[in-house]
Amino acid sequence: MEQAELRRWEARCTQEEPPRCRAACPLHVDVKEFCTRMAEEKYDQAWATLCRTMPLPRVLARICDGPCRRACIRGQAGGSIELPALEHVCAQRATRQPRILPAPSRGKKAAVLGCDLAGLAAAWDMTRKGIAVTIYTDTPPADALDGLHIPPAAADSIDSMLQQELDTLRRLGAEIQEHTEITSGLAAGCLEECGAVFITPRAYDRLMAGLPEPDPLTLGTATHGVFAAPPLPCSVTEGASPVAAAAQGRRAATSVARLHEGASLVAGREREGVFESTLFTSLEKVQPAPPVPVPAGGYDATQARNEAARCLRCECMECVRHCIFLQEYGSYPKQYARRIYNNESIVMGTRQANTMINSCMQCGLCATLCPNGFDMGALCAEARQSMVRRGKMPPSAHDFALRDMEFANGEHCTLARHAPDTQASGWVFFPGCQLAASDPDSIPRTWEWLRRHLPPSCGTAQNQGVGLMLRCCGAPAQWSGRNELTAGTVAALKQDWENLGSPVIIAACPSCAVMLRSNLPQADVTGLWEIMDSLTDSRPDILQPATADGHPAVVLHDPCGTREDAPMRQAVRSLLERYGIAVHEPELTAETTECCGFGGLAAEANAALGKKITEGRALRLGAPPAQGKTAEAAPSGTDLQADAVTYCAMCRDRLAAHGKRTAHLLDILLPAQADAPAIAAAPLPSAQEEPVAGTLPADCCAQGFSAAARHAPSLSARHENRARLREYLLTSCWDEAPAASGPQAALEIRYTAQAAARMEERRILDADVRKVLLHSRDNRWLQDTRSPQGHRLASLRPVVVTYWVEFTRHDENAFTVHNVWSHRMHVRTVNGRTPS
Amino acid sequence: MSTMKVLDKDYSHWVCARCGQPLQPATVELEYLDSLFNVELPACAACGLVLIPEDLATGKMADVESLLEDK
To answer: Which residues does the UniProt record annotate as the domain DUF7479 (chain B) (predicted)?
Structure first.
C-alpha cells in the first residue's frame, strides 16, 4: 500500500474527527471529556480539561456563551447540553488549580495594544509560547470585559476572578503598561522594538481607521508584523461573544509565534476557528431527554451531574458496534488501516497484523453502515493479495480451505452435464460445493424439480434442458487473496459452462452468485430462489413445503452474500409468505445482515474468533443463551423463538452447530421424501455407543421444522458427501458404474469421541487418517509397551502437513483411532542422517 | 547449531515396530519456512523414526510455526 492510498483510506473513517461541539467552539474545548468528568462529579479533572484549552479559565468558564450549543447533536434529542452552566459549576467547585507554567523564553517579544479580553487572551497564549509580551492600555485592566455579555450568575464574582487571572498573567511574565495612550506612534515604536504588534478590538478603530480589513485567517494587516482584530458584532442586549473574543486573541498569538519562528502564517490553519466536523453519530437508539433547567443561581451538584450525563459522548463506531471482528482488535478502521500499512512495511521482524487481516469476514456490513462506505473487507482483501504477491501469507491460514476447494474441484466431485436424455441446456443448476457438502440429498430433488417445472418457453427448441454443474465457485481462492488460483479456478469453471452451451446459471448459494457474477460477467446468473418464486407465482401447488408443529414461523437469516442482492432477498420473503410462513427479522437483517463467520475464510484463519462470530449471530437470532447469560433483546414485534431459516448451506451448518435451530430454505420448500435414498455420509463410526456428531441441545428439538435440528456434518462427512453425490448421480441418472474404490476404503475405522472432536478442531479428515493407517501397515508404527491396550502411533506427511494417528488395531483392516494431531514442521535429518 | 531440549519425559517405552528398538534421544533437524532447528527428540536408533508427541506438536511447535509464518 502506498502512503497516498493509506491517506485515502484513513480519510474515510471519521472516528478521529472531533465531536461537533468541539469543532463549533472557537477555542476547541474538549466538551466530551469535560462532560464525562462532570457526570462523574470529578470537578478537578473537569476543571483541568477546561484549563488545557481556555485562556483565563477562571473568567472564561464563568462567562462562556456556549456556541457549542448550536452544534450539539443532543439538540435533536431533547435539547443541547447547557455547557455554560456546567462550566460555571465546575469553576466554582474545583478545588485544585492545574499549574500553568510559562514556556522557556525564546528571546522574542510582542506588544499588545489595548486591554480587552482578546488582548488578555493573546498575551496569555504568548507567554505560554515563550514570547515576552507587554500590554499597553489607556483603560484600567479591570475594565477588560466591558462590552461583553456577562451572565447574571457570574456578575458578583467576575471582577475578582479577572483580578486573579491578571495576577496569573503577570506571574507568567506578561507586563501591563497602564495609562499609556494608544497612538500610531506607539504602534510604530513597538513594531520597531518587538517585531510583532497585536492591535486589539478596543484599539482597532483608533489605529486601523481607513485601512483595509485584516486577513481573517491570520489577522495580518498591510504592515508586516502588525496583526489586528476588528471589534466583534455586539447585540444591544447581549454584548459580544466572550469565547469569540478570546479566540481572536488566540489567533493573533498563533500568528505572532509563527512570524517569530519564520514559519508559514497560513499553512494548516483551516481548522483553527469554528469548523464543520464530519464525525457521524447515530441517534437511532438515543432516548430524547430535555435539558435540566438552569436556575438563576446556577446548577447544584445533582443538577450538574444529570445535565452532564445527557451528553452523548459523540463518536461514530457504527461499524465496530456491529462487528465482532472489528471489536476483536480494540480499535476502529482508521487505526486498522495504519496497522495494515505498517504490517506491509516491515522488512525484518514480526508482522503483528497478519491474523487480523485474515480474520475479516469481508462481508461488507461495515461499508453498508459507514456513512462514508469504509469497506474493511476490501482493505483486507487488498492486504491479503499483497501478502500473497510478496510471499508473506502465512501458509497455514487458508491451507485447509484451499485443499477443500481443490477436492471439490477435483475428479471425485465435479460434474458438468446436460440432463439425462438431452443434448442441450438452456439452464444449468449450480448448487455450490457447500450445499453438496452439507446436504447432498437436496440436490437431486431440486434439480429434478427444476427440470420438471422450468417452462419450455424459457429456451429455444434446442436448449430446453436444465444441466447440472457440481464444483466450487472459487470463493476460497478469492477470499485467500490468491489471484492466480482464482483465475485458474474460474477458467476451469468457464470451460465446463461453455461446454454446456453457456446456459443461464441457477445458483443455489448466494456467495456463488456473487462470485459468478463478478468473475464470469458474460454469464447470466440467477438465484434458485428467484426461479422458485417466479415459477410458483401462478402455480403455488408445485411446491409442498414442510409443515411445522404449531403456527409456522421462522426467524430469517439473510446470508451476507445477499447484502447487495435485493431481488434474491425479496424472492425468499415472497416464497415464505406464499406458503403462509410468518417471517420474523432480527435487528440486523437484509442489507445490514451479519456474516455467519465463514465469509472471507475468517473462521478458517481464526477459528476462535469464527466461533465467537457465529455464536453472536446465533444469539441474535434467538439461540438460547449460555447459562448465566441473558438472551438478546428482540426488536419490537419480533419473536426470535422460532426456528431460523436461511438460504446458504454454510450459514445453516454454522448456526445449527452453534446453538440455533436452523433450517435451509430447501428443507422447508422442497422437503426430502421419506422414501428417497440417502446420499449423505453417516457420522463417523464411533467407538462408543452414541453417534459422535451432535451439537444441538436435545431439549430444543421439540417443535418447529424437523430439518432445523439436522446435525451439521463433520469436516470428513462434508468431503465425502460431495463425492457420494457425484457417484449417486452417475449411477442413478446415467447408469454409470461407480469407480472402483481404493485400498483406503477397505479399512474399517472407528473413532473415539475424543478423536472425532480433535479431527474437527485440528482440521484432520477421515481420508487423512486412512492414508496414515494404510502407510503404517508395513511395520511403520511405534508401539507403546506400557499401554495395556497396545496403543500404536503412526505418522505420514502426504504433502506439507504431518499427521499423527494414535490407534489400536483389531485385525489387518480394523482399527480404533484414539487421538490425532498434526504439525507443519518437517523432519529433515536424525543424528545427521535422513530417516529411512 | 546447538540442540534444543524441549521434552523432559522418558519415551523409551515406545518401541519401533520395524526395528524392535526402544526410542532414544536423538538430534533431529526440523525445518519450516527456510528455518532450521536442531531439537532433541525420541527416535529409533536404527531407522530414525521420530516421535513428535501431541503436547509438542500442538504447543511449542505450533507456536514456532506461527511465529515463523509472521516473520
So the answer is: 13-71
